[in-house]
TrEMBL record:
One of its GO terms (molecular function) is metal ion binding. GO terms for biological process: intracellular iron ion homeostasis. SMART domains: B561. InterPro entries: CYB561/CYBRD1-like (IPR043205), Cyt_b561/ferric_Rdtase_TM (IPR006593). The chain crosses the membrane at residues 42-63, 83-105, 117-138, 158-179, 191-212, 232-253. This is Lysosomal membrane ascorbate-dependent ferrireductase CYB561A3. It is an enzyme of class 7 (translocase). The gene is CYB561A3. It comes from Sphenodon punctatus (Tuatara). Signal peptide: none annotated.
Length: 277
């Protein structure tokens, strides 16, 4: 079944955008009708996203290594430096990558199960890094006697991590374990998709507000933030790169032509573990 034969006949509420997807030549990936968001070529777009993701992580490491004293895991200020690295790597770059798993055209053919497992594994890795990133900042605060959870950044950040944790647990229980009935999966799927794409802008906002706060807290003497020293330039650019990476991921998620066709087959409802019959 092609995307179009499915999209034409379908009344599937999950697939609002793909019902409006333009007719497309899948071999060339080109749009054959106008009126919808144009899709750039998938592979160069993915390469660009990969480069941007690597840059976001590398620049975060470089910033902390060059200007903030490097890394340690002993409750010191150097332990704090793991916080931005682990948060950006986990909740922005790995999470953004995980969100795009079903946009890989190969995932549209054959079993969906390996792609579900890849999605779950990448998001689990993102979750583990986020928890370690929180341990880094809480340990540092506790050892240095700095109050916890006073800033807007910390409230936004913790809300993002809590939402992400709920999303992972409910997604795992619904889509990978055998006991959720199909009607419940179908009901929950649009909610999972909505919150899945809402968590990324929240993580971007938390990261950018964190960078901003760190610069205000640390750049005082001799050159304050307002004088735009080299570190401020560098970290401002890092914040803008995180924004560009996140926006491109959101754009890719919204692209009608890149959405996985969802035929009403049993296979798309298939959990990871089948109950013994
Ligand atoms: C998704 C990404 C992020 C999340 C979820 C997050 C979450 C948090 C949380 C929950 C705290 C409170 C810790 C406490 O009160 O002991 C915190 C503190 C902090 N974070 Fe982040 N963070 C993120 C990214 C960043 C980044 C990229 C930076 C850049 C340096 C950063 C800088 C800070 C700073 C300076 C603090 C200490 C001051 C405060 O409590 O606001 N954060 N973060």
């Amino acid at each position: 079944m092609t995307r179009n034969s499915y999209a034409k006949g379908s009344r599937d509420p999950w697939n609002y955008f793909s019902q409006r997807a333009p007719r497309r030549d899948r071999n060339r990936g080109a749009l054959l009708s106008s009126g919808a968001m144009p899709a750039p070529p998938f592979i160069p777009f993915s390469v660009l996203l990969g480069i941007l993701g690597i840059l976001c992580v590398a620049l975060t490491v470089f910033w902390n290594q060059k200007w903030r004293g490097g890394f340690a895991w002993d409750g010191s200020a150097e332990m704090f430096n793991w916080h931005p690295v682990l948060m950006v790597t986990g909740l922005v770059v790995l999470y953004g990558t995980a969100a795009l798993v079903y946009r890989v055209p190969r995932s549209w053919e054959g079993s969906k199960l390996p792609w579900k497992m890849l999605h779950a594994a990448l998001t689990l890795a993102a979750f583990v890094l986020a928890v370690l990133g929180l341990v880094a900042v809480f340990e540092f605060h506790n050892k240095a006697g700095i109050p916890n959870m006073y800033s807007l950044h910390s409230w936004l950040g913790l809300a993002t991590v809590l939402l992400f944790s709920c999303q992972w647990l409910v997604g795992f229980a619904s889509f990978l374990l055998p006991w959720a009935p199909n009607w419940l999966r179908a009901l929950y799927k649009p909610i999972h998709v909505f919150f899945g794409s809402a968590i990324l802008p929240l993580a971007m906002a938390a990261s950018i507000s964190g960078i901003n706060e760190k610069l205000f807290l640390s750049l005082k003497n001799p050159t304050p933030y307002s004088q735009l020293p080299a570190e401020a330039w560098f970290a401002n650019i890092l914040g803008m790169l995180i924004l560009v990476f996140g926006l491109l991921v959101l754009w890719a998620l919204a692209m009608p032509a890149w959405k996985r066709p969802e035929p009403d087959s049993q296979e798309t409802q298939q959990p990871l573990l089948q109950e013994a019959s």
